[in-house]
Amino acid sequence: MLRKRYYTVGMAGHIDHGKTALTKALTNIDTDRLKEEKERRISIELGFAPFHQEEDMQISIIDVPGHERFVRKMIAGTGGIDLVVLVIAADEGIMPQTREHLDILSLLGISNGIVALTKMSKVDAELRELAKDEVKEELEGSPFENAPLVLVDSISGEGIQELKDLILKSIEDIPVRSSEGDFRLPIDQIFSLKGQGTIVRGTIYEGEIETGAEVTILPQGIKAKARQIQVHGEKSSKGCAGQRAAINLAGVNYQQIERGNAVVSSSLFSVTDTIDVSLNTLGGIKNGLKQRMEIKFHTGTSEVMGKLVFFDRNKTEQAEDSILCQIRLNDKIVVKRGDRFIIRRPSPSETLGGGWIINPSGKRYRFGQETISKLRAVMEGSAEERILRLLQQKKSVPVQSLILEVSLTQEDLEELLNKPGWIMLRDTFVTHISIVESCEKKIVDVISTYHDRHPLEKGINKGELHSMLESFTDTVIQFSIERLIQQKQVSVENGVLRIHDFIPSLPSQWEKRCVQLLHSLKEDNLKVKPIEEYFKEAGIPGSLRQEFYYFFIGQEWIIPLDEKHAYAYETYKKAVNELKGKTDRRFNITEAKELLGLSRKYMIPFLERLDKDGHTVRINDERKWIFYRE
C-alpha cells in the first residue's frame, strides 16, 4: 500500500493582488476569517484551505498576508510550503511586496513555483502581453525565472482549471516530506475554545502524531497530551508531515505558549540561542550589514531579536552567498540543522538576508580564518564526518547529545551505527573504532612506560591509568582495556594492569646487591636487624629502598614482621610449620618463646603476623590455630 502524500501550496504576492480571491476560486473557501479582514479587505492572519484530496495524496493551500506590516506572518507561513503560486495582478505588475516575497522565498530555498497573473478581466489583450513580458523580465535571475505562467481571473473563472491542473502536475515532481523520525509542529496560531481548552495550529514539518500522544512544547519544556487532532476542520486519528493540523492539547493553558513555540514528540530537538549559519545577503539594502548589528531572526514560526556576529569581516554591503557567521538570540528557540531562516532589520523594516542553519548548538568562537575553516567543515561535512569531528573532541558522546549536536534523526543514527567502525558503549554512548584504537595505543604506551620506570612492580593501578588518560572518557578507556585483555596484549590482576608478557624483575645493575641483602637476611634467621640496615650494608641507595622492599614482598622473598623488621620468606614459613608441629590446637606466648627461642621483642610481632596471615586467632592470652592437624 502506498503511503499517503501531503503537500502545502502557498499563495504569495503583493497586497490586493488577488491571493485570497484566487484561493477561494481554487477551493471554494474564503480564508479571511477575521472580522477585521472582512472590513479592511486584507489578509492579516495566515489562511488555509483544502485544495485536493485523493486516496494517496492531499494538498492544502496557505494564503500568506501580503501587506508589509505582516511580513513576519508571511515568513511563518512559507516555512511549510512545498510549492508557491506567485500572484501578480496584471493591472499593476510586480510591486515592492512582490519583490520582497520573492526575496524571502528565494532565501528560504523555495524554488518550486508557478506564476499566476490575476485580474485578467481588468486588462485588454495588449496589456496582457505587456504584463507577461514585464513579469518574465523581472523574474530573470530569480528562482522563478523558468516557472510556468498562467493567466487567471478569480471572478470569471478564466484559467482556474488550467492552474489547478498545473498545480497537480507540478506537485508530482516534489519529494514528499518525511513522516519518519520525531514529530515537530511549529506553532503559528493559538486559541482556546470553551469546553475544549488549548488548541494550536501549524504545518507539520516532520514526523507524525496520533491522538493521545505525549508531547512537549519547546522551548518551555511543557508536557502535554494530544487530546484531539483535526486536519482542515475534520477530526483525524493522526497528523502527518506536510499536513496543516490543529491539535487540542490537554495539560497546558493557552496563555503559557505563544507563536513560534514548537510541539515535539521527543527531547531530541535543540533548544538554543546561539546558531551557526550560512548566510546569503541581498543587494541594495540600506547601510549594509555590520558586525554585531541588531536583527530580527525568523525561522519556522519563530521571530526573535538577536545579533549578527561575523568571524571574517566587520561589515558587508554587497549581495553575497554563504557567509559563515553566527546569530546570537535574545531568547531560546527550537531548530535543527538544515532549517531555513530570514534576518530583517528591526527599524526601518527591511529584509537583509537568509540562509540555512549549519549548527544549531553554536559556541563562542574567536574572530579569524581558523573559525571560518571549522565552520566550513561543519557546513560541508557529511553526518559521519561531523560525528567524527565531534568525537575527536569528546571521544564518546551520549546518543541523545549526539543527535542534538549533529542534528541527526534517530533513524539516521541507527543506519550509521550499522556501518563498520561505529561502536555503541553501554547502550548509551557512541564512539568510533579510530577513537578506540587511539585509546588502546595510549594505554599500551602508558603501561610500557610504567614498566620501564618501575620494573619491580607488577603493573599500574587501574585508577592511576585512568588519571593519565584524561583526554579519553571512562567509557572508552574501559572498553579499550577489555579489548586489549581479549587480544592478550594486556593482563589484569587485582586491579593492576600490565603488558601481557611482562614479568617484574630486578634491574641488572642492582641484582647482585639485592641477592646479597636477601642472603644476609636469611643467615640471621629469626633474629633479624631492622631492614634498613640490610639495605645500607648492601649499598642500595635510599631512593630505591622502598620500591625494592615492596618488590621483595610481592615476589614472596621476604615477609614484613612489623614496620621495621622483615624475615626471609622461607625462614618465616619454616618457623610457622615448626610452631604448628610442636603445639596443641591452643598455645600461649610462653610456649612459643621456648619453642622458637625468641625474645618478646620478636615474639609479639611474630604472633601478630600469624594473626594477620590467618594462621591463628587470638583468644584472651592464647592463640588458636585456625587450621590444625587432627
Tell me the CATH architecture of the largest domain: 3-Layer(aba) Sandwich
CATH homologous group name of the largest domain: P-loop containing nucleotide triphosphate hydrolases
Distance N to C terminus: 84 Å
Number of structural domains: 5
Largest sheet: 8 strands, antiparallel
Name the helicity range: 25-40%
User: Could you say which overall geometry the principal axes of the C-alpha atoms support?
Assistant: elongated
How many strands in all?
A: 35
According to CATH, the fold-level topology of the largest domain is Rossmann fold
Q: Over the alpha carbons, how many angstroms does the gyration radius reach?
A: 40 Å
Protein name: Selenocysteine-specific elongation factor
Subcellular location: Cytoplasm
Organism: Rossellomorea oryzaecorticis
GO molecular function: translation elongation factor activity
Please describe the topology of this protein.
Blueprint: E1 5-13, H1 19-27, H2 35-40, E2 47-53, E3 57-63, H3 71-78, E4 83-89, H4 96-107, E5 113-118, H5 125-138, E6 149-151, H6 160-171, E7 184-186, E8 189-193, E9 197-203, E10 208-210, E11 214-218, E12 222-231, E13 234-236, E14 238-240, E15 244-250, E16 262-264, E17 270-281, E18 289-290, E19 294-299, E20 302-310, E21 315-316, E22 323-335, E23 340-345, E24 350-359, H7 369-380, H8 383-394, E25 397-398, H9 399-406, H10 410-417, E26 422-425, E27 429-432, H11 433-453, E28 460-461, H12 462-467, H13 474-486, E29 490-493, E30 496-499, H14 508-523, H15 531-538, H16 542-554, E31 558-560, E32 566-568, H17 569-582, E33 586-588, H18 589-596, H19 600-612, E34 616-619, E35 622-625
Parallel strand pairs: 1-3, 1-4, 4-5, 5-6
Antiparallel strand pairs: 2-3, 7-16, 8-9, 9-15, 10-14, 11-12, 11-16, 12-13, 12-15, 17-22, 17-24, 18-21, 19-20, 19-23, 20-22, 23-24, 25-27, 26-27, 28-30, 29-30, 31-32, 33-35, 34-35
